[in-house]
Amino acid sequence: MKKLKNWDNQTWLSSENYIYQFNKFLNKRVRLNKNTKILDIGCGRANIISTLQKRYKFREKPIGLDIMKNKGIKKNIIFKKIDGYNYLKNKNSKYDLILLKQTVHFFSSSKLKVLINIAKKRLERGGKILIFTLKTTNNKIPCFKKMRQKLDSSLKRDEKLFKIIEKKLKRTNVTFFNFKVNISKHKYLKMVKSRYISCLLDLSNYEISKGISELQSKYNTQIKFTDTLKCIAYKK
User: Fold this and answer.
1) What's the number of domains the chain is made of?
2) What is the pLDDT of residue 26?
Protein backbone atom coordinates (compact mmCIF):
# COMPACT_ATOMS: atom_id res chain seq x y z
CA MET A 1 0.00 0.00 0.00
CA LYS A 2 1.13 3.53 -0.75
CA LYS A 3 2.09 5.77 2.15
CA LEU A 4 -0.50 8.16 3.54
CA LYS A 5 0.79 11.73 3.40
CA ASN A 6 -2.19 14.03 3.89
CA TRP A 7 -4.38 12.70 6.68
CA ASP A 8 -3.62 15.57 9.08
CA ASN A 9 -2.60 18.29 6.62
CA GLN A 10 -5.10 21.13 6.12
CA THR A 11 -8.09 19.02 7.08
CA TRP A 12 -10.46 19.23 10.06
CA LEU A 13 -7.95 16.86 11.74
CA SER A 14 -5.41 19.70 11.83
CA SER A 15 -7.84 22.44 12.87
CA GLU A 16 -7.44 24.14 16.23
CA ASN A 17 -10.99 23.18 17.20
CA TYR A 18 -10.45 19.48 16.43
CA ILE A 19 -7.17 19.37 18.36
CA TYR A 20 -8.78 21.22 21.29
CA GLN A 21 -11.77 18.84 21.37
CA PHE A 22 -9.58 15.76 20.99
CA ASN A 23 -7.23 16.80 23.80
CA LYS A 24 -10.24 17.64 25.98
CA PHE A 25 -11.46 14.06 25.39
CA LEU A 26 -7.95 12.79 26.15
CA ASN A 27 -7.67 14.78 29.39
CA LYS A 28 -10.80 13.09 30.75
CA ARG A 29 -9.16 9.68 30.35
CA VAL A 30 -5.55 10.36 31.33
CA ARG A 31 -4.21 12.41 34.21
CA LEU A 32 -1.52 14.55 32.65
CA ASN A 33 1.13 16.58 34.45
CA LYS A 34 4.63 17.84 33.73
CA ASN A 35 6.11 14.41 34.58
CA THR A 36 3.93 12.50 32.09
CA LYS A 37 5.92 10.59 29.45
CA ILE A 38 4.11 10.19 26.12
CA LEU A 39 4.74 8.08 23.03
CA ASP A 40 2.57 8.78 19.98
CA ILE A 41 2.72 5.98 17.37
CA GLY A 42 1.69 7.30 13.96
CA CYS A 43 1.90 10.96 14.97
CA GLY A 44 1.69 12.57 11.51
CA ARG A 45 2.72 16.18 11.98
CA ALA A 46 2.43 15.74 15.77
CA ASN A 47 -0.36 18.29 16.21
CA ILE A 48 -1.85 16.46 19.20
CA ILE A 49 1.27 15.97 21.31
CA SER A 50 2.70 19.36 20.32
CA THR A 51 -0.38 21.09 21.75
CA LEU A 52 -0.11 18.99 24.92
CA GLN A 53 3.56 19.96 25.24
CA LYS A 54 2.67 23.65 24.98
CA ARG A 55 0.13 23.29 27.76
CA TYR A 56 1.94 21.01 30.22
CA LYS A 57 5.62 21.69 29.40
CA PHE A 58 6.57 18.08 30.10
CA ARG A 59 10.00 17.46 31.61
CA GLU A 60 10.57 14.87 28.87
CA LYS A 61 9.31 15.96 25.47
CA PRO A 62 6.67 13.66 23.92
CA ILE A 63 8.04 11.28 21.32
CA GLY A 64 6.23 11.00 17.99
CA LEU A 65 6.78 8.13 15.57
CA ASP A 66 5.79 7.94 11.93
CA ILE A 67 7.05 6.16 8.81
CA MET A 68 6.60 9.43 6.89
CA LYS A 69 8.52 12.60 7.71
CA ASN A 70 6.01 15.14 6.46
CA LYS A 71 6.60 18.85 6.11
CA GLY A 72 5.41 20.86 9.08
CA ILE A 73 6.28 18.40 11.85
CA LYS A 74 6.12 20.32 15.11
CA LYS A 75 9.47 21.30 16.61
CA ASN A 76 8.62 21.08 20.32
CA ILE A 77 8.44 17.26 20.31
CA ILE A 78 10.97 14.52 19.52
CA PHE A 79 10.23 12.96 16.14
CA LYS A 80 11.50 9.57 14.96
CA LYS A 81 10.98 8.27 11.42
CA ILE A 82 10.20 4.66 12.33
CA ASP A 83 7.18 2.45 12.93
CA GLY A 84 6.04 1.62 16.46
CA TYR A 85 6.92 -2.07 16.26
CA ASN A 86 10.59 -1.52 15.36
CA TYR A 87 10.96 1.40 17.76
CA LEU A 88 9.56 -0.35 20.83
CA LYS A 89 11.34 -3.66 20.33
CA ASN A 90 14.71 -1.86 20.49
CA LYS A 91 13.92 0.47 23.41
CA ASN A 92 13.55 -0.14 27.14
CA SER A 93 12.04 3.26 28.01
CA LYS A 94 8.66 3.30 29.75
CA TYR A 95 5.75 5.67 29.18
CA ASP A 96 2.67 6.90 31.02
CA LEU A 97 0.69 7.18 27.80
CA ILE A 98 1.10 5.28 24.55
CA LEU A 99 -1.19 6.75 21.90
CA LEU A 100 -2.14 5.05 18.63
CA LYS A 101 -4.50 7.24 16.62
CA GLN A 102 -5.85 5.82 13.35
CA THR A 103 -2.71 3.71 13.01
CA VAL A 104 -3.41 0.05 13.78
CA HIS A 105 -4.88 -0.71 10.35
CA PHE A 106 -1.40 -0.29 8.85
CA PHE A 107 -0.14 -3.30 10.84
CA SER A 108 -0.49 -6.95 9.91
CA SER A 109 -2.26 -9.14 12.48
CA SER A 110 1.02 -10.76 13.53
CA LYS A 111 2.87 -7.47 13.98
CA LEU A 112 -0.08 -5.94 15.82
CA LYS A 113 0.01 -8.79 18.35
CA VAL A 114 3.71 -8.20 18.96
CA LEU A 115 3.23 -4.42 19.10
CA ILE A 116 0.51 -4.71 21.76
CA ASN A 117 2.63 -7.12 23.83
CA ILE A 118 5.64 -4.79 23.73
CA ALA A 119 3.53 -1.68 24.39
CA LYS A 120 2.15 -3.29 27.58
CA LYS A 121 5.68 -3.95 28.79
CA ARG A 122 6.71 -0.36 28.04
CA LEU A 123 3.95 1.12 30.21
CA GLU A 124 4.67 2.56 33.63
CA ARG A 125 2.51 1.20 36.45
CA GLY A 126 -0.83 2.96 36.10
CA GLY A 127 0.05 3.98 32.53
CA LYS A 128 -2.44 3.79 29.68
CA ILE A 129 -2.61 2.69 26.07
CA LEU A 130 -5.23 4.57 24.07
CA ILE A 131 -6.08 3.23 20.61
CA PHE A 132 -8.26 5.36 18.32
CA THR A 133 -9.79 3.99 15.12
CA LEU A 134 -12.63 4.95 12.85
CA LYS A 135 -16.06 3.84 13.98
CA THR A 136 -16.78 0.67 12.02
CA THR A 137 -20.58 0.72 11.97
CA ASN A 138 -22.74 3.43 10.38
CA ASN A 139 -19.65 5.47 9.55
CA LYS A 140 -20.62 8.96 8.32
CA ILE A 141 -17.52 9.93 6.30
CA PRO A 142 -18.73 11.29 2.93
CA CYS A 143 -17.88 8.76 0.21
CA PHE A 144 -18.41 8.05 -3.44
CA LYS A 145 -19.39 4.48 -4.36
CA LYS A 146 -15.92 2.99 -4.88
CA MET A 147 -14.55 4.85 -1.85
CA ARG A 148 -17.37 3.45 0.32
CA GLN A 149 -16.61 -0.08 -0.84
CA LYS A 150 -12.94 0.34 0.01
CA LEU A 151 -13.71 1.98 3.35
CA ASP A 152 -16.21 -0.71 4.37
CA SER A 153 -13.70 -3.41 3.47
CA SER A 154 -11.07 -1.67 5.60
CA LEU A 155 -13.48 -1.28 8.51
CA LYS A 156 -14.32 -4.99 8.41
CA ARG A 157 -10.62 -5.72 8.73
CA ASP A 158 -10.49 -3.26 11.65
CA GLU A 159 -13.14 -5.32 13.43
CA LYS A 160 -10.83 -8.33 13.27
CA LEU A 161 -7.97 -6.22 14.60
CA PHE A 162 -10.21 -5.05 17.49
CA LYS A 163 -10.63 -8.67 18.54
CA ILE A 164 -6.85 -9.12 18.59
CA ILE A 165 -6.41 -5.92 20.62
CA GLU A 166 -9.11 -6.80 23.14
CA LYS A 167 -7.80 -10.35 23.51
CA LYS A 168 -4.26 -9.11 24.11
CA LEU A 169 -5.22 -6.29 26.48
CA LYS A 170 -8.16 -8.12 28.12
CA ARG A 171 -9.26 -5.34 30.48
CA THR A 172 -10.32 -2.57 28.13
CA ASN A 173 -12.81 0.27 28.19
CA VAL A 174 -14.46 1.50 24.99
CA THR A 175 -15.72 5.05 24.43
CA PHE A 176 -16.33 7.24 21.37
CA PHE A 177 -14.94 10.61 20.34
CA ASN A 178 -17.36 12.60 18.16
CA PHE A 179 -16.42 15.69 16.18
CA LYS A 180 -18.97 17.64 14.14
CA VAL A 181 -17.45 18.50 10.76
CA ASN A 182 -18.71 21.45 8.70
CA ILE A 183 -16.55 21.78 5.59
CA SER A 184 -17.01 23.36 2.20
CA LYS A 185 -17.57 20.92 -0.65
CA HIS A 186 -14.70 22.56 -2.54
CA LYS A 187 -12.25 21.88 0.29
CA TYR A 188 -13.45 18.33 0.84
CA LEU A 189 -13.05 17.51 -2.86
CA LYS A 190 -9.47 18.80 -2.68
CA MET A 191 -8.89 16.43 0.27
CA VAL A 192 -10.25 13.52 -1.75
CA LYS A 193 -8.02 14.46 -4.68
CA SER A 194 -4.99 14.47 -2.35
CA ARG A 195 -6.07 11.04 -0.98
CA TYR A 196 -6.45 12.12 2.63
CA ILE A 197 -7.65 8.73 3.86
CA SER A 198 -6.06 5.30 3.37
CA CYS A 199 -9.02 3.79 1.48
CA LEU A 200 -8.23 6.18 -1.40
CA LEU A 201 -4.55 5.30 -1.76
CA ASP A 202 -4.91 2.38 -4.17
CA LEU A 203 -7.55 3.94 -6.40
CA SER A 204 -6.51 5.03 -9.90
CA ASN A 205 -6.55 8.68 -10.96
CA TYR A 206 -9.56 7.86 -13.13
CA GLU A 207 -11.44 6.38 -10.15
CA ILE A 208 -10.62 9.44 -8.03
CA SER A 209 -11.74 11.81 -10.79
CA LYS A 210 -14.98 9.88 -11.31
CA GLY A 211 -15.57 9.83 -7.55
CA ILE A 212 -15.08 13.58 -7.27
CA SER A 213 -17.72 14.08 -9.97
CA GLU A 214 -20.06 11.83 -8.00
CA LEU A 215 -19.50 13.82 -4.79
CA GLN A 216 -19.88 17.08 -6.74
CA SER A 217 -23.45 16.20 -7.69
CA LYS A 218 -24.29 14.53 -4.37
CA TYR A 219 -23.57 17.42 -1.97
CA ASN A 220 -24.39 21.12 -1.72
CA THR A 221 -21.84 23.83 -1.01
CA GLN A 222 -21.29 22.67 2.58
CA ILE A 223 -20.79 19.11 3.82
CA LYS A 224 -21.80 18.35 7.40
CA PHE A 225 -21.29 15.07 9.22
CA THR A 226 -20.00 13.61 12.50
CA ASP A 227 -16.52 12.10 12.45
CA THR A 228 -16.51 9.36 15.10
CA LEU A 229 -13.52 7.52 16.53
CA LYS A 230 -13.67 4.43 18.68
CA CYS A 231 -11.32 4.65 21.67
CA ILE A 232 -10.03 1.43 23.22
CA ALA A 233 -8.34 2.16 26.56
CA TYR A 234 -6.13 -0.11 28.64
CA LYS A 235 -4.66 0.69 32.05
CA LYS A 236 -1.72 -1.24 33.48
Assistant:
1) 1
2) 95
